[in-house]
Amino acid sequence: MNAKPAAIDEVLAHGQWLRRLAHALAKDDGDAQDLVQQTYLAVIESPPSTDRSVRPWLGRVLRNFARMGRRGQERRVERERNAGLGPEPLPGADDLLAQHRLLRVVAELVEQLDEPFRSTVLLCYGEDLSPSEVASRLGVPAATIRWRLMRARERLRAELDARHDGDRRAWAVLLLPCRSEQ
Predict the structure, then answer these.
(1) 124-172: per-residue pLDDT in tens?
(2) CA 19 to CA 16: how far, in whole Å?
(3) Shared domain check, 104 and 75
(4) What are the two backbone dihedrals, phi and then psi, of residue 96, each rounded to the nearest 5 degrees?
(5) Residue 68 belongs to domain spanning
(6) Which of 48, 64, 72, 164 is positioned for an S-S bond with 170, CB 3.0–4.6 A?
């Protein structure tokens, strides 16, 4: 029973040193005080062994709390940054109509593609299959499907560029790569 008060007395004897270390590691006085209190709580919950000097143990515990606090702060900042982004505002009615019209033009252009380019585009983009999945289902090499997609996109780009006077920004977002190519 005398061992516990002796350990606590030894811990308290290092109080000044512990506070200086906490101030060196913390951003402000409040954080430093929190680190010291967390370290004292750790002493109460799981006292250090009395067969060694307590100072290295205290320093390690306090440094661990400081490190965990920094990590928590970094995660909190990241969460807040991500939460601050929020959903993007919905496009206006004119933008939605313009996008719908462009989708209709692309659909018409896809319909005009020769086979096997048309079905390859429809399977990848319309059915959301990866080129590997399409290749497997059609019994052809995946490289063949990727080549067909490349050629089909080249043809679609050329036609869309011609229709939009070379302004690729007007239509490019509609031709994002299919699922597994991203």
Answers:
(1) 988 889 999 999 999 999 999 999 999 999 999 899 888 878 777 777 7
(2) 5
(3) no
(4) -60, -40
(5) 3-85
(6) 164
SS3 12: helix
Domain with 119 in it: what CATH number?
1.10.10.10
In whole angstroms, what is the distance from residue 168 CA to residue 152 CA? 16
CA-to-CA dists, residue 169 to 97, 159, 161, 165, 173, angstroms: 16, 14, 10, 11, 7
Number of neighbours of residue 177 by Cβ within 10 angstroms:
12
Q: Are 113 and 80 members of one domain?
A: no
Q: Does the bond joining 116 to the residue before it have cis omega, within 30 degrees of 0? A: yes
Rounded Cα distance, 7 and 55, in Å: 11
Model confidence at 88, pLDDT cuts 50, 70, 90, reads low
Which CATH number do you get for residue 68? 1.10.1740
56 Rama sector, left if φ>0, alpha if ψ -120 to 50, beta otherwise: alpha
* The last residue of a domain, from among 51, 68, 85: 85
pTM across the whole model = 0.47
Cα separation, 153 vs 131, whole angstroms: 14
Kindly state whether residues 144 and 167 are assigned to the same domain.
Answer: yes
Residues 97, 62, single domain; the answer is no
Closest CA relative to residue 38, chosen from 64, 75, 5: 64
